[in-house]
Design goal:
CATH architecture of the largest domain: Beta Barrel
Order of helices and strands: HHEEHEEEEHEEEEHEEEHE
Oligomer: single chain
Distance between the termini: 42 Å
Largest sheet: 8 strands, mixed
Radius of gyration: 18 Å
Structural class: alpha+beta
Strand content: 25-35%
CATH topology of the largest domain: Barwin-like endoglucanases
Shape: globular
Number of strands: 14
């Protein structure tokens, strides 16, 4: 099966992209050639949408599907992987300076059910956070709130297990709210500001209109809509699909 890791905003091998690629006949091709072609497609998709917003590009916002992942502090990284550990780069992500690390952890919920190989994303932060979907939450037996990244008020507890140790985090798990990354320049062209809520139309196989999409701005960010795997699967969308901006709420 073709490896499309890195295509998503927070790629953790959800399988949707690989499943879609399996529709094409690539039997008999040299795996190295296939991988090279995939890398070129990934680069093309990640580059698309990096320019300033135009009127036409308001109908072509790229989608990034975010599977479960972890953000850690240096202190927690030391507990899980040993004192003085650093995050090792595995693959760059869509937003500048963000990357998927080689290290993964196991997350354990209150029912003693575990999800293994949950990837850590870098760079390190000043808080520990685990972002999961509602499907993950039901399996783990926890009730995380829907929150913006960094807002851990009422976040659910999880235990994280690494090769060197484990740590119980009483307030770490959230379901990330749907949100739209953009630069401040793009925000001006969309006539929105950081913290606004907007409406977005997904243009995939099962078109849908999403409300309460949070606008997040930063001069270093590239235009991209972020949904979790539950939302993307419900609309038949995969990374690189297009969405249309419908205006503020």
């Amino acid at each position: 099966m073709v490896n499309l890791k890195g295509l998503a905003s927070y790629c953790q091998d959800c399988g949707a992209c690989a499943a879609r690629v399996s529709e094409f006949n690539i039997s008999g091709m040299d795996p190295k050639i296939v991988e090279r072609i995939v890398d070129e497609v990934v680069l093309s998709i990640q580059t698309e949408g990096s320019d300033s917003v135009t009127e036409t590009s308001k109908s072509s916002i790229p989608l990034g599907v975010s599977n479960h992942h972890v953000h850690l502090t240096q202190q927690t990284l030391n507990i899980l992987f040993g004192e003085g550990s650093i995050l090792e780069h595995y693959r760059p992500l869509y937003q500048p300076e963000d990357f998927a690390a080689k290290q993964t952890v196991t997350i354990v919920g209150s029912k003693m059910r575990a999800i293994q190989n949950v990837r850590i994303l870098g760079p390190l932060r000043d808080y520990d956070q685990v972002e999961i979907s509602m499907t993950d939450a039901i399996y783990l037996g926890i009730k995380p709130p829907v929150r913006d990244s960094g807002d851990l008020e009422g976040a659910a507890p999880l235990t994280l297990v690494g090769p060197a140790g484990s740590v119980f985090l009483p307030h770490c798990a959230i379901i990330a709210g749907r949100h739209l990354h953009m630069s401040n320049q793009d925000a001006g062209k969309f006539d929105v500001k950081n913290g606004d809520l907007c409406r977005i139309r997904l243009l995939g196989e099962k078109p849908a209109i999403l409300e309460n999409v949070l606008v997040r701005t930063n001069d270093n960010w590239r235009l991209q809509l972020h949904l979790d795997t539950d939302e993307a699967n419900a609309t038949g969308s995969i990374c690189g699909a297009k969405a249309e901006f419908l205006g503020k709420m």
